[in-house]
Every structure is written in C-alpha cells, then in structure tokens.
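Format notes (please read before filing issues)

Several people have asked whether sequences and structure tokens are stored in separate files. They are not. Every record keeps both together, in the order shown below: the sequence lines, then the token lines. Line labels are part of the format and must not be stripped during preprocessing.
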Amino acid sequence: MTAWADHGPLPGVVGRAVEHERVAGLLAGAAPVTLTGPAGVGKSLLARAVLEERTETGPDTVVRIACWDGLTAGELPGALLRAVGLPPRSTVEDLAAHCRTHRAIVLLDDCDPLLDACAVLVRRLLRAEPALRIVATARRPLGLPGERVVALAPLPVTLGEGIAGPAVELLAARTGPAAPELLAAVCRALEGCPLAIGLAARQLGRMTLAQLAARLDDEGPLHYSGPSPTTRHTSLYAAHAAGYALCSPVDRRVWARLSVLPGDFDPWLAGCVCSSSDVPAAAVDGALERLRTASVLACVRDAEGTPGSGTGLPPRYRLPRGAREFGRARLRETGDEAGALRRFRQACAALAAEAQITWQGTGQQLAVRLVEDEQHHLDAALTRPPLDAEDALSALEIAVSLWFQWAACGFRREGRAHLDRLLRLSREDTALRARALWLAGYLAAQENAATTAEPLLARAWTAAVMHADDDGLARIAHAHAVLALYREDTTTAVACLEEAARHTSRDPWFGPGPAHSWALLALALAPVDAVRAQTAAHRAWESRHADSDFWLHSTILYAHALIERAHGDPAAALRACRKALVAKKLIGDPLFVAGARTMLAGLRRGARSDTPVRVPGAGEVRWWRRTSSDAPRRPFFSRLRAGQ
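Then the structure lines:
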C-alpha cells in the first residue's frame, strides 16, 4: 500500500519548477520543511510530486498522515505508529529510530486542524532523531525553530505581454486547443488558483469556454464543484469553509467584513470597516496578521519606513476573490452586510476628505497618489447603490471631495456622471448638495456644455444665497467666467473673474479659490492688456494657499507664456510654456496639456523661421478649446471605464 493509495495517479504539476527544486534541495538537510499557501493552491500535490520523485530514484520511503481525516490531537502519534507498522505501545523514540532505519520521510499532510499537535510531535521526533526528514503541508507554518517554509502563491496568468503563464498552461491541458484570450480571461477570473481552474474545467462538458468566462465574470468561481479525494476540495466554497471553521470568532467577523473591500487595503481602512461593538478596534490588526499567516489574506506590500515618522508606509493586504466571495456570503448570512457597507462608505468619505485637504495643503502629487491607491474603493463607494438617504449623502460627499480629481486632473466627464446620478438620489436641500450643484455646473462649463452648466449654476446660486455661502457665490462667478471664455466674451469673463478674485475664501480646501481666479484673469487679459495680465498673475501667486500648488503654478506660467507671446519676447514665451507643461504633467489634465503643446509647437516653429509673433485672434485655437483631434481621456475609475 502506497502513501497515496487514496489519491490515485498523480496529475501533472504545472508551473512549480522553482518550488519543486527548492523543496527537493531542502530535503537534503535535517530541518523540517513546511509548504504553505492559500486554499487550493496545490501544497499537497507539490509535496507528493517531490517525495514520489525521491522514492522512485532512491531508497527513501514516505510515511504520510492525513491530518484532516477526522484525527484528534491525541490520536496523531498512534496514527503515525500504525502507518509505519509499529505496535501501539511503541514510543516516539521507537518511531524515530524506525524512520531512520528505513530512510523514511514523514509527511504530515494538511496539518491545519491539528497544527499545535503536529508541532509538538515534530519537536519530539527531532529531539529523538535530529536528522529525521519531515515535510508538512498547511495554510500556516508550524512555528518551529529552524523550520524552512516554502510559500506557494497562485499561478501567474501571464509572464509578460502576450506570453501565457502557468495558469493558462494548466487550463489548456484540461481543455485542449482553445482561444488564448479566452483561456487567459478564465484564469484571470480565477486568479490563478489551481483548484479553481480544475473545478472550472470540469464545467466545459455543459458550456463553452466563452460561456464559462462570462459566467465567471458575473458569478465567480465559488460554487463550481467536482469529485475530489477530500470533501473540502470538491468546491472552492468548501475549501474556504474548512479554513473559516478553524478561525476564532473575531477572525471570522473580520474576514467576512473585509469582503466589502474590492481592492487592496491598509490596516486603517480595515479597522474602519471591521470595528464594531463585537470587534474592538484594537483587535483588528491582530486579526489581519493571523489571517495573513493562515494564507487567507495576501500581503501585497510590507510596511516600509518607520511607523509614525511621517515617511513610513503601512502594509497593504488583499483578500483574493474566492475568499472575498466566501466572506460576503457569510456576511449576508449573519445579517451584518448593511452595517459593513455603511462603515465602508463612511471610511471612503474620510479618505476623499483627506485627499482634498492634501491637495490644497501638503502636496498635490500626494493627493493624486492617495486617490490612485484607493481607486477600487472610491469607485465602489461611488457606484454601489446607497442603502438609504443618509448613505446616499456619504456617496455624494465623496464625489464632492474629489472635485480636484474631476476638475484639475482632467476626469471631468466621469465626475459629471457621478454627480448627475448622486444628485438625483440626494434631494434634501443641504450645503453639501449646493456644492455638488456648483461642481456639476463647473465641470460642464469646463467642457463648454453651456446648456447643461447654466441651469446647474443657477440652482447652485439659489442654494448658495439660501445658505449664505459667499464662497459658493465666488465659485459660481468663476464658473461663469469659464463659459464666457468659451464664448470669446472677454469683457464678461474679466468682470466675473474680478468678482471671484476679490472674495476672501473662508474655506480654502474646496474648489478654485481667489488665487485661481486671479490666474484665469491673467489668461483672459493676456491677449489684450499685458500690464493688467502681469498684475493678475502676480496677485495669483501672492494669494496662493500653498507653494506646492502645481495646478496654480502651471496656470500662471501659461499666462506668462501668453503674455510674452502676444506682447513681448518669443524666447521668454517658449521658456514659460515649457515650464507650464512640466508643472501640469505632474497632476494631469489632458485639455490643458494639449493646449500647452499646441502653443509650444507654434512657438518653436516661429523661433525656427524667425517669423513675427501673431497676436491671438478670433480664428485661432485657444488653450481652452477642445479640438477634434483631442483624444478623450480614459475614465479613472474602473466601473465607468467598463461602461457601467
């Protein structure tokens, strides 16, 4: 009887050459070797492949104990004695001596339910026979001194542009010839999990590969099932349920609540979502570490720098799709989903508010980085249907706080789509709604959609008057100036901008303040009055809120370029335009970048040909004009990018 009599022939092991070689090399030493990894990643399969290779090419034998087969901690030593054929009254020392004599390698397979007992047994065996070779498979290490841990990750789907990875190779071996893009789509949906790939391949008898790919996108891989030597491997749901049963009550609640997070996250966001009356905030960090050790969570970034120093970065974790879907099912079963979703949206509102303050304060590049890091979460918080009116206001607050992402970084159409939908859900006349009306109108004005912008700005004006919001009135004047610039109505634009610029903002965190109105005034005056334009540009810089305002700095530099182009030195215009383009690229906004590049190209042509500089006229494309050649900016957030 072989050590794997209950498993049948060994299937091919794909994509594990590096891990195979490492485990084989470690077996040459005396330290215990533990293969770890998430559910269904193929720990037992790789251990069997390595050990069968040794028994086929040498005198070694294998003694295997399946720890998940109903054994108790007290029965573990006796099971090992029976496996080697020793009498029940034999000691651990007898067992160790027998294994040494017969060159036996002890395999403790699937140790998770008896992890502590396995660790105790291994210690006793190594104390009796230090050279004994022991291999264990588990979702977490045994925690032994000198233990060599080989962590298995899901199989890569691709190895580079257009190069299929081991996950695709594994699926192709089960499906036969198939379209590579469909194979890759299925493997991406399954996140390279070997168990999930095998279970999904069994469905191809009743559906095509294209249908399978579509269903996986919609439903996920959790409930596909098939025959297996072990019950917990008959489905991905069963595999996660087995691990879930071994977790403490606190860890189970944290796992389930983390399922509302669609992307990778840091401990702060996890604490916001998971903390409640039954999970203290102080307990969340420990739960995250235990779930990571148990291979439930993947660590996508270790902590960097010194915590609390201002330069350190916290670790970031990710809940793989299968574990996330299982946790979401458990969350619904316990009736805790609504509370977790509400806490999630509130946390995203706090993130967006932090990004807004960072934009106007310590650094605009940091604000952009924060939004990019939390892109998946902000996307979900903006697009998931609100639970009630209060939850809808939280979503609207996120959209309003991200005004700089829409207005300054060039994602205007996406911001308009979010605001249009959320304004319909938030009917109550609040100061937040007034800001949202202005922002929607301002974004429409930036896109020269006057028929949309003007009614929104009129409603925003009424709300600002009702709430005695002088800041709001100044922002409305700024937006009307943008519309006037599109109409080539310099007189109206200048009047509106002078009104906005004279206002002293009480809330410097939201919207383009007086400094930006002065900068836009300099742009409007540049072709007609160089002195006033220079004065406005100077006032813009003097009234800046922070030295790191690249949005303002690039606009002022562009105004200087326009002034020099129309009234002064073409070489100075060229230098200012180059600097404006560099500053603007730090934060984005393709419309402005395209305008700066257009002017830069004209200045270069003029410098080469030594032609006189022409004052911009009515027939010339201005910086704020969108030409037919301007490529539309790709939406930032994923759901709108997918057309949802």
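For reference, the curators noted about this record: The chain has a mean pLDDT of 86. The first strand starts at residue 33 and ends at 36.
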